[in-house]
Model the fold of this input.
Amino acid sequence: MGLQDLIITPVYLAIFTLIALVIRPYVTNKGTRKYFLPALWVRFGGAILLGVLYQFYYGGGDTFNYWEHGSRWIYQAFNEDISLGVKLLMEPGGVWDPETFQYTSNIWYYRDPASYAIVKATAFFDLLTFHTYSATSLFFAVFSFSGLWALYSALQYKYPENSGRLAIAVLFVPSVIFWGSGILKDTVTLGALGWMTWGLLRWIDFGKRGIVEAGIFAFSLWVIFRIKVYILICFLPMIAVWLFFKNVKRIRNLALRLLLIPALLLVFIASAYFTLDQVTKDSSKYQLDNLAERARITAYDIRYGWGARSDGDGGYDIGLPDGSWQSLIGLAPRAINVSLFRPYIWEVRNPLMILSALESLAILFLSIGLIVKGNIRAKLRDPFLVFCIAFSVLFAFAVGVSTFNFGTLMRYKVPLIPFFLIFLTIQGERE
Done:
Protein backbone atom coordinates (compact mmCIF):
# COMPACT_ATOMS: atom_id res chain seq x y z
CA MET A 1 0.00 0.00 0.00
CA GLY A 2 1.25 3.48 -0.84
CA LEU A 3 0.32 7.04 -1.80
CA GLN A 4 -2.35 5.86 -4.23
CA ASP A 5 -4.22 4.21 -1.35
CA LEU A 6 -4.27 7.49 0.56
CA ILE A 7 -5.86 9.26 -2.41
CA ILE A 8 -8.32 6.72 -3.85
CA THR A 9 -9.48 4.93 -0.71
CA PRO A 10 -11.00 7.98 1.05
CA VAL A 11 -13.03 8.65 -2.10
CA TYR A 12 -14.55 5.17 -1.97
CA LEU A 13 -15.09 5.41 1.77
CA ALA A 14 -17.15 8.54 1.14
CA ILE A 15 -19.04 6.96 -1.77
CA PHE A 16 -19.95 3.81 0.18
CA THR A 17 -20.99 5.86 3.21
CA LEU A 18 -23.27 8.05 1.08
CA ILE A 19 -24.83 4.95 -0.52
CA ALA A 20 -25.32 3.47 2.95
CA LEU A 21 -27.08 6.62 4.12
CA VAL A 22 -29.42 6.45 1.13
CA ILE A 23 -30.39 2.80 1.57
CA ARG A 24 -30.43 2.76 5.38
CA PRO A 25 -34.13 3.71 5.73
CA TYR A 26 -35.08 0.74 3.52
CA VAL A 27 -33.02 -1.94 5.29
CA THR A 28 -33.34 -0.91 8.94
CA ASN A 29 -36.01 -0.33 11.54
CA LYS A 30 -36.14 1.55 14.81
CA GLY A 31 -34.31 -1.26 16.60
CA THR A 32 -31.53 -1.81 14.05
CA ARG A 33 -30.88 1.65 12.57
CA LYS A 34 -28.20 2.59 15.12
CA TYR A 35 -26.08 -0.43 14.22
CA PHE A 36 -26.07 -0.03 10.44
CA LEU A 37 -23.31 2.50 9.81
CA PRO A 38 -21.05 1.36 12.71
CA ALA A 39 -21.24 -2.23 11.45
CA LEU A 40 -20.24 -1.08 7.98
CA TRP A 41 -17.45 1.19 9.19
CA VAL A 42 -15.81 -1.43 11.41
CA ARG A 43 -15.67 -3.71 8.38
CA PHE A 44 -13.93 -1.00 6.41
CA GLY A 45 -11.49 -0.67 9.30
CA GLY A 46 -11.00 -4.44 9.41
CA ALA A 47 -10.28 -4.60 5.68
CA ILE A 48 -7.66 -1.85 5.85
CA LEU A 49 -6.11 -3.19 9.06
CA LEU A 50 -5.80 -6.64 7.51
CA GLY A 51 -3.78 -5.19 4.65
CA VAL A 52 -1.58 -3.16 6.98
CA LEU A 53 -0.78 -6.16 9.16
CA TYR A 54 -0.12 -8.46 6.24
CA GLN A 55 2.22 -5.91 4.67
CA PHE A 56 4.11 -4.69 7.72
CA TYR A 57 3.79 -7.58 10.18
CA TYR A 58 3.57 -10.76 8.10
CA GLY A 59 5.45 -9.34 5.12
CA GLY A 60 3.00 -10.88 2.67
CA GLY A 61 0.37 -13.60 2.62
CA ASP A 62 -2.80 -14.68 0.87
CA THR A 63 -4.43 -11.27 0.66
CA PHE A 64 -1.41 -9.71 -1.10
CA ASN A 65 -0.91 -12.78 -3.25
CA TYR A 66 -4.44 -12.40 -4.60
CA TRP A 67 -3.66 -8.78 -5.41
CA GLU A 68 0.04 -8.32 -6.11
CA HIS A 69 0.66 -11.77 -7.64
CA GLY A 70 -2.81 -12.20 -9.07
CA SER A 71 -5.13 -9.38 -10.03
CA ARG A 72 -2.21 -7.15 -11.04
CA TRP A 73 -1.65 -9.28 -14.12
CA ILE A 74 -5.30 -9.19 -15.16
CA TYR A 75 -5.31 -5.42 -14.63
CA GLN A 76 -2.21 -5.19 -16.80
CA ALA A 77 -3.89 -7.31 -19.48
CA PHE A 78 -6.83 -4.89 -19.57
CA ASN A 79 -4.44 -2.00 -20.07
CA GLU A 80 -2.69 -3.76 -22.94
CA ASP A 81 -5.60 -5.55 -24.62
CA ILE A 82 -9.15 -5.38 -23.26
CA SER A 83 -10.15 -8.62 -24.98
CA LEU A 84 -7.38 -10.50 -23.16
CA GLY A 85 -8.45 -8.98 -19.85
CA VAL A 86 -12.01 -10.10 -20.42
CA LYS A 87 -10.79 -13.56 -21.38
CA LEU A 88 -8.80 -13.82 -18.15
CA LEU A 89 -11.91 -12.92 -16.16
CA MET A 90 -13.85 -15.65 -17.97
CA GLU A 91 -11.26 -18.40 -17.55
CA PRO A 92 -11.93 -20.93 -14.75
CA GLY A 93 -8.27 -21.30 -13.79
CA GLY A 94 -5.94 -24.25 -14.15
CA VAL A 95 -6.37 -24.47 -17.94
CA TRP A 96 -3.37 -23.09 -19.78
CA ASP A 97 -4.19 -21.05 -22.88
CA PRO A 98 -1.29 -19.94 -25.11
CA GLU A 99 -3.03 -16.62 -25.75
CA THR A 100 -3.11 -15.68 -22.04
CA PHE A 101 -0.10 -17.69 -20.83
CA GLN A 102 2.09 -14.60 -20.54
CA TYR A 103 -0.25 -13.44 -17.76
CA THR A 104 -1.48 -16.68 -16.17
CA SER A 105 2.06 -18.01 -15.78
CA ASN A 106 2.71 -15.15 -13.35
CA ILE A 107 -0.49 -15.62 -11.32
CA TRP A 108 0.46 -17.73 -8.32
CA TYR A 109 -3.04 -19.06 -7.71
CA TYR A 110 -4.02 -19.74 -11.30
CA ARG A 111 -3.63 -23.49 -10.81
CA ASP A 112 -6.26 -23.49 -8.08
CA PRO A 113 -9.72 -22.55 -9.47
CA ALA A 114 -11.05 -21.64 -5.99
CA SER A 115 -8.22 -19.20 -5.34
CA TYR A 116 -8.32 -17.90 -8.89
CA ALA A 117 -11.98 -16.99 -8.35
CA ILE A 118 -10.83 -14.55 -5.65
CA VAL A 119 -8.12 -13.23 -7.98
CA LYS A 120 -10.77 -12.54 -10.64
CA ALA A 121 -13.08 -10.80 -8.17
CA THR A 122 -10.16 -8.67 -7.01
CA ALA A 123 -9.25 -7.83 -10.60
CA PHE A 124 -12.82 -6.80 -11.40
CA PHE A 125 -12.89 -4.34 -8.51
CA ASP A 126 -9.36 -3.20 -9.40
CA LEU A 127 -10.78 -1.86 -12.65
CA LEU A 128 -12.89 0.52 -10.57
CA THR A 129 -10.13 1.50 -8.13
CA PHE A 130 -7.19 1.75 -10.56
CA HIS A 131 -5.58 -1.28 -8.89
CA THR A 132 -5.57 0.21 -5.40
CA TYR A 133 -5.33 -2.47 -2.70
CA SER A 134 -7.16 -0.81 0.20
CA ALA A 135 -9.92 0.60 -2.02
CA THR A 136 -10.47 -2.80 -3.64
CA SER A 137 -10.62 -4.41 -0.19
CA LEU A 138 -13.55 -2.10 0.65
CA PHE A 139 -15.65 -3.86 -2.00
CA PHE A 140 -15.00 -7.18 -0.28
CA ALA A 141 -15.94 -5.61 3.06
CA VAL A 142 -19.21 -4.36 1.57
CA PHE A 143 -20.15 -7.84 0.33
CA SER A 144 -19.37 -9.43 3.69
CA PHE A 145 -21.33 -6.71 5.47
CA SER A 146 -24.31 -7.11 3.16
CA GLY A 147 -24.64 -10.82 3.93
CA LEU A 148 -24.22 -10.39 7.66
CA TRP A 149 -26.63 -7.45 7.76
CA ALA A 150 -29.22 -9.52 5.88
CA LEU A 151 -28.76 -12.31 8.42
CA TYR A 152 -28.95 -9.87 11.33
CA SER A 153 -32.11 -8.21 9.97
CA ALA A 154 -33.87 -11.56 9.55
CA LEU A 155 -32.88 -12.66 13.03
CA GLN A 156 -33.95 -9.35 14.55
CA TYR A 157 -37.35 -9.84 12.94
CA LYS A 158 -37.51 -13.36 14.38
CA TYR A 159 -36.18 -12.39 17.83
CA PRO A 160 -37.08 -8.68 18.18
CA GLU A 161 -36.31 -8.57 21.90
CA ASN A 162 -32.68 -9.57 21.25
CA SER A 163 -31.50 -6.80 18.89
CA GLY A 164 -28.44 -5.84 20.95
CA ARG A 165 -27.27 -9.39 21.57
CA LEU A 166 -27.72 -10.28 17.94
CA ALA A 167 -25.75 -7.22 16.84
CA ILE A 168 -22.78 -8.32 18.93
CA ALA A 169 -23.02 -11.96 17.82
CA VAL A 170 -23.37 -11.26 14.10
CA LEU A 171 -21.87 -7.82 13.44
CA PHE A 172 -19.29 -6.87 16.05
CA VAL A 173 -17.12 -9.88 16.90
CA PRO A 174 -13.53 -8.61 16.43
CA SER A 175 -12.03 -11.73 14.80
CA VAL A 176 -14.95 -11.99 12.38
CA ILE A 177 -14.48 -8.34 11.48
CA PHE A 178 -10.75 -8.78 10.96
CA TRP A 179 -10.72 -12.06 9.03
CA GLY A 180 -14.02 -11.48 7.27
CA SER A 181 -13.53 -8.06 5.70
CA GLY A 182 -10.46 -8.00 3.46
CA ILE A 183 -9.36 -9.65 0.23
CA LEU A 184 -9.66 -13.24 1.39
CA LYS A 185 -11.76 -16.30 0.62
CA ASP A 186 -13.18 -16.07 4.13
CA THR A 187 -14.70 -12.65 3.42
CA VAL A 188 -16.59 -13.86 0.38
CA THR A 189 -17.81 -17.11 1.92
CA LEU A 190 -18.88 -15.32 5.10
CA GLY A 191 -21.00 -12.86 3.14
CA ALA A 192 -22.49 -15.66 1.04
CA LEU A 193 -23.22 -17.71 4.17
CA GLY A 194 -25.11 -14.75 5.64
CA TRP A 195 -27.22 -14.37 2.50
CA MET A 196 -27.83 -18.11 2.32
CA THR A 197 -29.11 -18.22 5.90
CA TRP A 198 -31.23 -15.14 5.24
CA GLY A 199 -32.92 -17.00 2.37
CA LEU A 200 -33.47 -20.07 4.52
CA LEU A 201 -34.98 -18.06 7.37
CA ARG A 202 -37.42 -16.43 5.00
CA TRP A 203 -38.34 -19.75 3.38
CA ILE A 204 -38.54 -21.96 6.47
CA ASP A 205 -39.63 -19.63 9.27
CA PHE A 206 -41.32 -16.68 7.54
CA GLY A 207 -43.03 -18.50 4.66
CA LYS A 208 -41.53 -16.12 2.08
CA ARG A 209 -40.91 -18.53 -0.80
CA GLY A 210 -40.38 -16.13 -3.67
CA ILE A 211 -38.01 -16.03 -6.59
CA VAL A 212 -35.77 -13.50 -4.83
CA GLU A 213 -35.16 -15.82 -1.88
CA ALA A 214 -34.54 -18.78 -4.19
CA GLY A 215 -32.20 -16.80 -6.43
CA ILE A 216 -30.11 -15.39 -3.59
CA PHE A 217 -29.90 -18.81 -1.94
CA ALA A 218 -28.79 -20.45 -5.19
CA PHE A 219 -26.22 -17.74 -5.96
CA SER A 220 -24.79 -17.89 -2.44
CA LEU A 221 -24.59 -21.66 -2.58
CA TRP A 222 -22.75 -21.43 -5.90
CA VAL A 223 -20.27 -18.87 -4.50
CA ILE A 224 -19.42 -21.05 -1.50
CA PHE A 225 -19.25 -24.15 -3.70
CA ARG A 226 -16.71 -22.44 -5.96
CA ILE A 227 -14.50 -21.31 -3.08
CA LYS A 228 -14.89 -23.55 0.00
CA VAL A 229 -16.93 -26.69 -0.54
CA TYR A 230 -16.30 -27.95 2.98
CA ILE A 231 -18.50 -25.18 4.39
CA LEU A 232 -21.42 -26.63 2.43
CA ILE A 233 -20.55 -30.13 3.62
CA CYS A 234 -21.14 -28.92 7.18
CA PHE A 235 -23.97 -26.50 6.42
CA LEU A 236 -26.34 -28.39 4.12
CA PRO A 237 -26.99 -31.43 6.37
CA MET A 238 -27.88 -29.07 9.21
CA ILE A 239 -30.69 -27.63 7.09
CA ALA A 240 -32.21 -31.11 7.27
CA VAL A 241 -31.82 -30.99 11.06
CA TRP A 242 -33.60 -27.62 11.11
CA LEU A 243 -36.46 -28.91 8.95
CA PHE A 244 -36.74 -32.11 10.96
CA PHE A 245 -37.18 -30.29 14.28
CA LYS A 246 -39.45 -27.71 12.64
CA ASN A 247 -41.81 -30.41 11.38
CA VAL A 248 -41.69 -32.49 14.56
CA LYS A 249 -42.59 -29.40 16.58
CA ARG A 250 -45.74 -28.92 14.50
CA ILE A 251 -47.08 -32.34 15.55
CA ARG A 252 -48.95 -31.62 18.75
CA ASN A 253 -50.30 -35.12 19.36
CA LEU A 254 -47.65 -37.05 21.33
CA ALA A 255 -48.62 -40.49 20.01
CA LEU A 256 -48.62 -39.27 16.42
CA ARG A 257 -45.30 -37.53 16.98
CA LEU A 258 -43.68 -40.74 18.26
CA LEU A 259 -45.11 -42.61 15.30
CA LEU A 260 -43.90 -40.16 12.66
CA ILE A 261 -40.49 -39.22 14.04
CA PRO A 262 -38.66 -42.30 12.63
CA ALA A 263 -40.16 -41.76 9.17
CA LEU A 264 -39.33 -38.03 9.17
CA LEU A 265 -35.84 -38.78 10.41
CA LEU A 266 -35.21 -41.20 7.55
CA VAL A 267 -36.56 -38.73 5.00
CA PHE A 268 -34.35 -35.87 6.18
CA ILE A 269 -31.24 -38.05 6.57
CA ALA A 270 -31.71 -39.39 3.04
CA SER A 271 -32.30 -35.86 1.73
CA ALA A 272 -29.15 -34.56 3.43
CA TYR A 273 -27.03 -37.43 2.09
CA PHE A 274 -28.38 -37.04 -1.45
CA THR A 275 -27.74 -33.28 -1.39
CA LEU A 276 -24.17 -33.73 -0.16
CA ASP A 277 -23.52 -36.46 -2.69
CA GLN A 278 -24.67 -34.18 -5.51
CA VAL A 279 -22.62 -31.22 -4.24
CA THR A 280 -19.40 -33.24 -3.90
CA LYS A 281 -19.73 -35.74 -6.76
CA ASP A 282 -17.54 -33.70 -9.15
CA SER A 283 -14.79 -33.12 -6.57
CA SER A 284 -12.63 -36.12 -5.72
CA LYS A 285 -11.10 -33.97 -3.00
CA TYR A 286 -14.37 -33.67 -1.08
CA GLN A 287 -16.33 -36.77 -2.05
CA LEU A 288 -17.93 -38.32 1.02
CA ASP A 289 -15.84 -41.48 0.76
CA ASN A 290 -12.62 -39.44 0.78
CA LEU A 291 -13.33 -36.95 3.57
CA ALA A 292 -11.46 -38.83 6.30
CA GLU A 293 -8.33 -39.16 4.16
CA ARG A 294 -8.61 -35.52 3.06
CA ALA A 295 -8.72 -34.44 6.73
CA ARG A 296 -5.52 -36.40 7.39
CA ILE A 297 -3.68 -34.86 4.42
CA THR A 298 -4.81 -31.32 5.21
CA ALA A 299 -3.90 -31.63 8.89
CA TYR A 300 -0.41 -32.89 8.10
CA ASP A 301 0.21 -30.27 5.41
CA ILE A 302 -0.87 -27.35 7.59
CA ARG A 303 0.97 -28.61 10.67
CA TYR A 304 4.18 -29.92 9.11
CA GLY A 305 4.15 -29.46 5.34
CA TRP A 306 3.52 -26.70 2.82
CA GLY A 307 1.03 -24.90 5.08
CA ALA A 308 3.27 -24.77 8.14
CA ARG A 309 4.12 -21.24 9.27
CA SER A 310 7.29 -20.10 10.96
CA ASP A 311 6.07 -16.72 12.14
CA GLY A 312 5.04 -17.76 15.63
CA ASP A 313 1.37 -18.57 15.10
CA GLY A 314 2.13 -21.93 16.67
CA GLY A 315 0.76 -25.37 16.15
CA TYR A 316 -1.42 -27.43 18.44
CA ASP A 317 -1.48 -31.16 18.94
CA ILE A 318 -4.69 -33.13 19.46
CA GLY A 319 -3.36 -36.23 17.73
CA LEU A 320 -3.15 -36.62 13.96
CA PRO A 321 -5.96 -38.50 12.18
CA ASP A 322 -4.87 -41.64 10.35
CA GLY A 323 -7.32 -41.34 7.46
CA SER A 324 -10.08 -43.45 9.01
CA TRP A 325 -13.45 -42.32 10.30
CA GLN A 326 -12.75 -44.07 13.60
CA SER A 327 -9.73 -41.86 14.27
CA LEU A 328 -11.69 -38.72 13.32
CA ILE A 329 -14.52 -39.59 15.70
CA GLY A 330 -12.00 -40.32 18.45
CA LEU A 331 -10.48 -36.86 17.99
CA ALA A 332 -13.87 -35.09 17.86
CA PRO A 333 -14.05 -33.83 21.49
CA ARG A 334 -10.55 -32.33 21.34
CA ALA A 335 -11.14 -30.90 17.86
CA ILE A 336 -14.38 -29.19 18.91
CA ASN A 337 -12.72 -27.85 22.05
CA VAL A 338 -9.77 -26.37 20.16
CA SER A 339 -12.03 -24.61 17.66
CA LEU A 340 -14.43 -23.15 20.21
CA PHE A 341 -12.28 -22.45 23.28
CA ARG A 342 -8.62 -22.27 22.24
CA PRO A 343 -6.06 -20.80 22.09
CA TYR A 344 -6.00 -20.44 25.85
CA ILE A 345 -4.39 -17.32 27.28
CA TRP A 346 -1.18 -19.19 28.11
CA GLU A 347 -0.92 -20.43 24.51
CA VAL A 348 -0.57 -16.95 23.02
CA ARG A 349 2.55 -16.73 20.84
CA ASN A 350 2.13 -13.33 19.19
CA PRO A 351 0.04 -10.15 19.51
CA LEU A 352 -2.56 -11.27 16.97
CA MET A 353 -3.32 -14.41 18.98
CA ILE A 354 -4.33 -12.28 21.96
CA LEU A 355 -7.53 -11.31 20.12
CA SER A 356 -8.43 -14.93 19.46
CA ALA A 357 -7.54 -16.01 23.00
CA LEU A 358 -9.71 -13.33 24.60
CA GLU A 359 -12.63 -14.20 22.33
CA SER A 360 -12.22 -17.89 23.10
CA LEU A 361 -12.20 -17.09 26.82
CA ALA A 362 -15.40 -15.03 26.48
CA ILE A 363 -17.08 -17.86 24.55
CA LEU A 364 -15.99 -20.33 27.24
CA PHE A 365 -17.51 -18.16 30.00
CA LEU A 366 -20.75 -17.79 28.02
CA SER A 367 -20.91 -21.55 27.50
CA ILE A 368 -20.33 -22.25 31.19
CA GLY A 369 -22.96 -19.65 32.08
CA LEU A 370 -25.46 -21.34 29.80
CA ILE A 371 -24.84 -24.69 31.46
CA VAL A 372 -25.02 -23.24 34.98
CA LYS A 373 -28.28 -21.41 34.25
CA GLY A 374 -29.78 -24.56 32.75
CA ASN A 375 -31.18 -22.83 29.66
CA ILE A 376 -30.08 -25.44 27.15
CA ARG A 377 -33.37 -27.36 27.05
CA ALA A 378 -35.32 -24.18 26.34
CA LYS A 379 -33.03 -23.33 23.44
CA LEU A 380 -33.29 -26.82 21.99
CA ARG A 381 -37.04 -26.32 21.60
CA ASP A 382 -36.24 -23.71 18.93
CA PRO A 383 -35.49 -25.48 15.59
CA PHE A 384 -33.35 -22.61 14.30
CA LEU A 385 -31.18 -22.60 17.41
CA VAL A 386 -30.80 -26.37 17.06
CA PHE A 387 -29.57 -25.70 13.53
CA CYS A 388 -27.11 -23.08 14.84
CA ILE A 389 -25.55 -25.33 17.48
CA ALA A 390 -25.49 -28.34 15.15
CA PHE A 391 -23.71 -26.43 12.39
CA SER A 392 -21.31 -24.79 14.86
CA VAL A 393 -20.27 -28.06 16.48
CA LEU A 394 -19.91 -29.93 13.19
CA PHE A 395 -17.88 -27.10 11.67
CA ALA A 396 -15.76 -26.82 14.82
CA PHE A 397 -14.99 -30.52 14.51
CA ALA A 398 -14.16 -30.24 10.80
CA VAL A 399 -11.69 -27.35 11.10
CA GLY A 400 -10.27 -28.43 14.45
CA VAL A 401 -9.37 -31.91 13.23
CA SER A 402 -7.80 -30.75 9.97
CA THR A 403 -5.97 -27.50 10.76
CA PHE A 404 -3.44 -28.02 13.60
CA ASN A 405 -2.18 -24.45 13.49
CA PHE A 406 -3.65 -21.61 15.55
CA GLY A 407 -2.86 -18.98 12.94
CA THR A 408 -4.80 -20.84 10.28
CA LEU A 409 -7.52 -21.90 12.70
CA MET A 410 -8.29 -18.27 13.59
CA ARG A 411 -9.33 -17.74 9.96
CA TYR A 412 -10.97 -21.06 9.25
CA LYS A 413 -13.31 -21.00 12.24
CA VAL A 414 -14.80 -17.58 11.44
CA PRO A 415 -18.01 -18.99 9.84
CA LEU A 416 -19.02 -20.83 13.00
CA ILE A 417 -18.57 -17.95 15.45
CA PRO A 418 -21.76 -15.96 14.67
CA PHE A 419 -23.90 -19.11 14.75
CA PHE A 420 -22.43 -20.38 18.01
CA LEU A 421 -22.86 -16.97 19.63
CA ILE A 422 -26.45 -16.79 18.38
CA PHE A 423 -27.12 -20.06 20.18
CA LEU A 424 -25.39 -18.90 23.36
CA THR A 425 -27.01 -15.48 23.62
CA ILE A 426 -30.54 -15.75 22.15
CA GLN A 427 -33.42 -16.87 24.34
CA GLY A 428 -35.27 -18.71 21.58
CA GLU A 429 -38.80 -18.62 20.22
CA ARG A 430 -41.66 -18.07 22.57
CA GLU A 431 -44.13 -20.92 22.76
About this structure: The first helix runs from residue 3 to 27. The chain has 20 helices and no strands.
